[in-house]
Design goal:
The protein has 316 residues and is mainly beta. The chain is 10% helix and 44% strand.
Length: 316
């Protein structure tokens, strides 16, 4: 079983979009190539397979590509792969061969890089990960500069068998009270199995007097032994109420391969409420004072012969 998706990547922005290091210099021509960002393959120990990866030069200048196969791992919670530099840790890359080591493509030209995979018969079931690197180089005669960029197609290999799949909720960060919105639940899911997982995550947000809000998060691969951080702001600054967030993450088809969690947060603008209360109390105090003044100023409240005299005055 294999799946592939094609994507166009503008090399001017590769230092932001690429998962690998890249060096870019100013150039007059827009340089765009089309590659396959990732493929997923399932095999059994001792099997062989092959496939083709399309590569298109959609820029306005010739580009030369050199190819390498390198093993990767993930040691962060962002899901960013890292190339394994130690030769002692290379596993999958030694079982993959490419049909060519380099190629030069003219503007608009397309080619296909064929890969061959041969697994040993005693290979343990689980997940194995590598990348097929494309390093491009191009010279600009007008600017006398060179552009070098390194991209990669990630290969997720599942060796079928009795592999271990398990995960748990490593953290869930959301205060129980906050003054303003939006609410921003962020959490980590830790993969403790021997195969990558791609959880289907749903957040359900309920609040009194409001309809339930259902949010589906994008599915992302989590490498074995690593955790992946998810963040999803909800709401706006001016919000009030008690909000209950229910998390459901399904990472497998067997019983128990679902993570659930619930957290409630109260959003209440207490500073603004105190200000309004102060205004209301002040207004009530002023109104009471005015009413008191008017009541005692009304002549109808005095005796007929006038206000009472506090001191006796001599008769004339």
């Amino acid at each position: 079983m294999r799946s592939a998706q094609r994507i166009s990547i503008t090399l001017v922005f590769l230092f932001v979009a690429s998962i690998f290091s890249s060096i870019s210099y100013a150039a007059e021509d827009m340089q765009t190539i089309t590659i396959t960002p990732s493929i997923e393959i399932s095999m059994h120990p001792g099997e062989t397979t092959s496939g083709k990866l399309p590569l298109i030069n959609e820029s306005t200048i010739p580009l030369t590509f050199t190819f390498q196969v390198r093993d990767i791992t993930v040691d962060n919670n962002k899901g960013i792969p890292k190339i394994i530099t130690s030769n002692q840790l290379q596993i999958l890359s030694q079982w993959i061969k490419l049909s060519q080591e380099s190629v030069t493509l003219q503007p608009g030209e397309r080619t296909e890089i064929e890969y061959f995979i041969e697994l040993p018969s005693n290979l343990l079931p689980g997940g194995y990960y590598t990348t097929i690197l494309y390093q491009t180089s191009a010279s600009q005669e007008k600017t006398q500069t060179k552009i070098k960029t390194q991209l990669g197609t990630i290969l997720y290999l599942t060796v079928e068998g009795d592999y271990f799949k398990d995960a748990y909720l490593k953290s869930f960060n959301l205060p129980s009270f906050q003054e303003h919105g939006p609410i921003n639940p962020n959490f980590e899911i830790q993969n403790v199995g021997s195969i990558h997982i791609k959880p289907k995550i749903t957040l359900r947000i309920n609040s009194l007097g409001r309809d339930e809000v259902k949010l589906n998060l994008p599915e992302r691969n989590i490498f074995p032994g690593s955790a992946l951080l998810y963040e999803l702001p909800y709401g706006k600054k001016n919000m009030i109420g008690m909000y209950t967030i229910d998390l459901e993450a399904i990472y497998g088809t067997n019983e128990g391969q679902t993570i659930t969690f619930q957290r409630t947060v109260l959003v209440f603008p207490w500073k603004f409420a105190l200000f309004i209360l102060f205004i209301l109390n002040g207004t009530a105090f002023i109104v009471a004072g005015v009413m008191h003044y008017l009541k005692h100023k009304d002549p109808s409240t005095f005796p007929k012969n006038g206000p009472p005299r506090l001191f006796m005055t001599p008769k004339s």
